[in-house]
């Protein structure tokens, strides 16, 4: 081969020691994913058991797993746990549903029409930076101490964030899709209903899944003050009597409920938007 001839390009060698899923963007199997997730939870449970079992942490600060489970079973047996759970699920379901029903159409509206965006977006952006905690005493003055006040806190903490996130979802719809609708001589309403909204739905669903996690936080906040039942209320009462096992148990229960709702929405996303996700 002559000196001026170019060398043939050789394929890059794969680096040794790199397992499947360790490279950027590399997928892993569902079984592998599940094994890793369960191992993490199991490891934390073992660490918790060891810290309390060997006396590294006093029970007043962190009770043992057995003590927490025993307390939860006792509360479930006497019916307290089920009452708190039912009330909290009703509150978060109602508050989140009202916020989503109002936020989605408003977000779609300001995401498509500049005049509506100029009228609504700055105001929503202004309110969303106000701390939700500051609205707790005001909500009691406005709505009393019943369920309406709890729903109002969940609404305030969720609605304004949802509006802006849905607006961003709508703005990500490719402009070519809208231009195609105009080429077909579709009205603005038909472009919205047939092109924009269906294209933005996967992103809107992700927005709902994320804000549902925030709604669980606002639920607990709403029930910490002026409540007579609910998961947050029980945490407050247990704090007064230093019942750490009940506090830890209810916190873990909130985490489990949040994880379940998140995984359910993920599973529904794969079913509802299978074509959009390429699955």
Total tally of structural domains: 1
Total count of strands: 0
Q: What composes the largest sheet?
A: none
Query: Average pLDDT across residues?
Result: 88
Query: What is the CATH superfamily label?
Result: MetI-like
| Sequence of secondary-structure elements | HHHHHHHHHHH
Helix content percent band: over 70%
C-alpha end-to-end distance: 49 Å
**Radius of gyration, rounded?**
25 Å
What is CATH's topology name? MetI-like fold
Task: Quote the beta fraction.
Answer: under 5%
Shape by Cα distribution = globular
CATH architectural grouping: Orthogonal Bundle
Q: Low-confidence stretches at least 5 residues in length (pLDDT < 50)?
A: 1-6
CATH class: Mainly Alpha
**Alpha plus pi helix count:** 11
Helix- and strand-based class? mainly alpha
Chart the SSEs and their pairings:
Layout: H1 30-53, H2 65-78, H3 80-112, H4 114-128, H5 135-143, H6 147-171, H7 175-183, H8 188-224, H9 231-240, H10 244-272, H11 274-277
Helix pairs in contact: 2-10, 3-4, 3-6, 3-8, 3-9, 4-6, 5-6, 6-8, 7-8, 8-9, 8-10, 9-10
Keywords:
279 residues; 75% helix; mainly alpha; 0% strand; globular
Can you tell me about this structure?
- About 25% of the residues are buried.
- The chain contains 11 helices and no strands.
- Helix 8 runs antiparallel to helix 10 and helix 9 (about 230-240) runs antiparallel to helix 10 (about 245-270).
- It has one domain: Orthogonal Bundle (MetI-like fold).
- The chain has helices at about 30-55, 65-80, 80-110, 115-130, 135-145, 145-170, 175-185, 190-225, 230-240, 245-270, 275.
- The protein has about 280 residues and is an all-alpha fold.
- Helices cover about 75% and strands about 0% of the residues.
- The longest helix has about 35 residues, at about 190-225.
């Amino acid at each position: 081969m002559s000196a001026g001839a170019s060398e043939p390009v050789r394929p890059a060698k794969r680096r040794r020691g790199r397992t499947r899923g360790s490279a950027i963007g590399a997928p892993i199997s569902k079984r592998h994913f599940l094994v890793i997730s369960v191992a993490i939870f199991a490891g934390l449970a073992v660490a918790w058991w060891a810290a309390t079992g060997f006396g590294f942490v006093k029970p007043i600060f962190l009770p043992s797993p057995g003590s927490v489970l025993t307390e939860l079973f006792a509360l479930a047996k006497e019916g307290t746990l089920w009452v708190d759970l039912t009330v909290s699920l009703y509150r978060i379901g109602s508050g989140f549903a009202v916020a989503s029903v109002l936020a989605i159409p408003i977000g779609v509206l300001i995401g498509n029409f500049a005049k509506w965006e100029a009228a609504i977006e700055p105001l929503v952006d202004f309110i969303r930076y106000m701390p939700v905690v500051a609205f707790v005493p005001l909500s009691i003055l406005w709505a009393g101490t019943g369920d309406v006040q709890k729903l109002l806190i969940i609404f305030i903490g969720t609605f304004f964030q949802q509006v802006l996130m849905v607006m961003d979802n709508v703005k990500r719809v490719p402009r070519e899709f809208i231009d195609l609708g105009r080429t077909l001589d579709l009205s603005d309403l038909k472009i919205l209903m047939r092109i924009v909204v269906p294209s933005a739905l996967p992103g809107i669903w992700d927005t709902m899944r994320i804000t549902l996690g925030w709604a669980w936080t606002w639920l607990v906040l709403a029930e910490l003050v002026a409540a007579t039942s609910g998961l947050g209320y029980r945490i407050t009462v247990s704090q007064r009597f230093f019942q750490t096992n009940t506090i830890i148990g209810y916190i873990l229960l909130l985490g489990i409920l949040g994880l379940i709702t998140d995984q359910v929405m993920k599973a529904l996303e794969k079913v509802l938007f299978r074509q959009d996700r390429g699955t």
